[in-house]
Structure formats: structure tokens, C-alpha cells
Design a protein that fits this description.
Elements lengths: L9 H11 L4 H7 L17 E3 L6 E3 L3 E2 L10 H16 L4 E3 L7 H12 L6 E6 L4 H15 L4 E6 L5 H14 L2 E7 L6 H10 L4 E5 L11 H8 L2 E5 L6 H6 L16 H10 L6 E2 L6 H8 L9 H10 L2
Parallel strand pairs: 3-4, 4-5, 5-6, 6-7, 7-8, 8-9, 9-10
Antiparallel strand pairs: 1-2
């Protein structure tokens, strides 16, 4: 579970980083994020996709997280920026959006906006069960589907392995019945990786979601190879290490080598580091800012770093 003391968002840190790098939000708004790359890199059809190993279905490599960012009130002034975010996400080829009952109002907000904008059919909606007990788990998952207006739901995950055996038993039944399309497990800290690996080794699941970034690489040692071996899709959460990476990089200019992998921001470099790992299916940066969303989505376009280049990023971005 993410504690209140950890509520330092990637969005705030991104804003600080842009100012320090001399980019500035006003400048971004003026340019409308017009980049110098060829026009084809701005089309949704160019978005990198990865197959879900258990089915072969393709998912775009850049998804959208909703922790904190979609936890807003009912006022139109609160939700209008998120409508812009979700519209731009789909427009630019996005599909996977991830939420949880522990994310406050996020599920309800995602469901309402997707319905209002007619986007449900274009989204791959993932959420989680985060409670003990079979009956309470069923009730919570049914409530999530109601809020998200998604039945069947695309992916239901056992959040932070809470009562994992009980909830996976229900989810296996639900998958056979067509109530959910895919099932998985999640965690967000390296301290949970051993427990995740044990479940991954013994259970037949479709997805595992774990923390992975250039600043949190522990999953490379065991979890990512195990996921590939077991044919399990991997969603990377905390792609900016909770904003820590932006705080480290805010005084550094964008390196000249960024152009070699078609990157025009640190966010794109950090995301391309993640999705260039062969075990990763998608990364899910969260934002409530449409400009940041458009910046993130460009990480799914153009060239990816090879292993040598990944090592260079790791050396210079930490």
C-alpha cells in the first residue's frame, strides 16, 4: 500500500524539471508540442505495441496510470483536464489505463469520463482487488466494474498480493465465465519482489505489474526473466520512481545523444529505457496534464535503445 508520506507525484516533479530545463509550461502551450521529428512519428499507427504472451493480443507500450491524478471531485473544473488527458491518450494510440479501489475516486472518474466521451471500446481497462476474503473480494470487484462501467473488465489484478490465493481462485472462475478477460498480480516495491516471484512461479496468470525504472532496477535480477520464462505480460509502474528521477535530472540539460533514439525530453528517455527491456509489455506513467501526456506518448514512437544504449542511459540518468 502506498502511504500518504509517499505522495510526491511525478506530475509535480515534471513541472519542476521543465522549468529548470528552460522548457517551461508556457512555452509548451505556445508551441503545442510541435516536435521536429517527421510527421509519421505523430500518428497513432506508429505507436509501438507488444503482444500479451497468453493471447497474442497487442497492447500499446505506453499506458496511463491513475494513482492520485484521477482522484478528483465531481466539479467540471476538476474533471475537464482529465477529459483532455483521456481524449489525447486515445487519439495518440493509447489503450491500457490502470486503476484501483485504493486510488480514491479514480475508478469512478475513469468510468464516467470514458462513458461521456464514448471511449470505452477503445480502452483496455485494468483495475485491482485489494481486500481479504472471498465474498468481500467479489463485492469489491463488482463495485469496481460498476464504477468503471466495464463488464467484462479487461484485466483484474490482485493488488500488492493481498489475500492472493483467495482472490486468484475467484478470478480463475471469473475468467472461465468471461467476467474478466485477463488476471494478474501487482506490487510496487522491491521488498515485495520475492513474494511476487513465488506467486509467478506457481500460478498461471496473464499479467504481473511491478515497479521498474532506470532508478529502480531490482526487477531485472529475477522477476523480468521469470516473467518471460512463464509467458506473463509485465506492466511497469512507478516509471519515474515516484518523481525522484525528475528531481535528480532537473538541473541537467537534455543530452545530445537523445536524438539518436528520437527523444526530446527526459521523460521520453526514461520511458524508452523501460519499454526497451524485452520482458516489458507496457509502462503506465500517470498525469493529469495533457501536455505531459503527449510528451509521454512520444516515448512509444521511433527508435528504442539497444542494450549498449540502455547502459548509457542508466549511467547518465541516475
Amino acid at each position: 500500500m502506498i502511504t500518504p508520506s509517499q505522495k510526491q507525484t511525478d506530475t509535480v516533479s515534471r513541472r519542476e524539471a521543465l522549468v529548470w530545463l528552460g522548457v517551461g509550461l508556457a512555452g509548451l502551450a505556445t508551441t503545442g508540442l510541435r516536435f521536429s521529428r517527421a510527421a509519421e512519428l505523430n500518428t497513432p499507427s506508429a505507436m509501438l505495441t507488444r503482444p500479451i504472451p497468453s493471447s497474442g493480443e497487442s497492447l500499446p507500450a505506453i499506458g496511463l496510470g491513475t494513482w492520485q491524478t484521477f482522484d478528483v471531485g465531481a466539479a467540471s473544473s476538476d474533471r475537464a483536464p482529465l477529459e483532455d488527458v483521456l481524449n489525447a491518450f486515445v487519439e495518440l494510440g493509447g489503450k491500457l489505463i490502470d486503476s484501483s479501489p485504493m486510488y480514491g475516486n479514480s475508478e469512478d472518474v475513469v468510468g464516467e469520463i470514458a462513458a461521456k466521451l464514448g471511449l470505452r471500446a477503445k480502452l483496455f481497462i485494468a483495475t485491482k482487488v485489494w481486500i481479504t476474503g472471498k465474498d468481500t473480494g467479489i463485492a469489491q470487484m463488482q463495485d469496481s466494474m460498476r464504477k468503471l462501467r466495464a463488464k467484462p473488465i479487461d484485466l483484474m489484478q490482485v493488488h500488492n498480493l493481498v489475500d492472493v490465493d483467495t482472490q486468484l481462485a475467484t478470478l480463475r472462475e471469473w475468467k472461465r465465465a468471461g467476467i474478466v478477460r485477463y488476471i494478474g498480480i501487482t506490487h510496487y516495491t522491491a521488498s515485495g519482489h520475492d513474494a511476487v516471484a513465488r506467486v509467478l512461479a506457481r500460478e498461471k496468470i496473464d499479467f504481473v505489474q511491478i515497479n521498474y525504472s532506470v532508478g529502480e532496477r531490482e526487477a531485472e535480477a529475477r522477476l523480468l526473466p521469470l516473467a518471460r520464462e512463464r509467458g506473463v505480460a509485465v506492466i511497469a509502474n512507478r516509471p519515474f520512481a515516484g518523481g525522484d528521477l525528475f528531481r535528480r535530472l532537473r538541473s541537467r540539460p537534455l543530452p545530445s545523444w537523445a536524438a539518436e533514439i528520437d527523444c526530446e525530453s527526459w521523460a521520453q528517455i526514461l520511458l524508452k529505457f523501460i519499454i526497451s527491456h524485452p520482458a516489458i509489455t507496457a509502462a503506465i506513467p500517470g498525469t493529469a496534464n495533457a501536455l505531459h501526456l503527449r510528451d509521454n506518448m512520444r516515448a512509444g514512437l521511433g527508435r528504442l535503445p539497444d542494450e549498449k544504449f540502455r547502459a548509457r542511459i542508466a549511467a547518465e540518468a541516475v
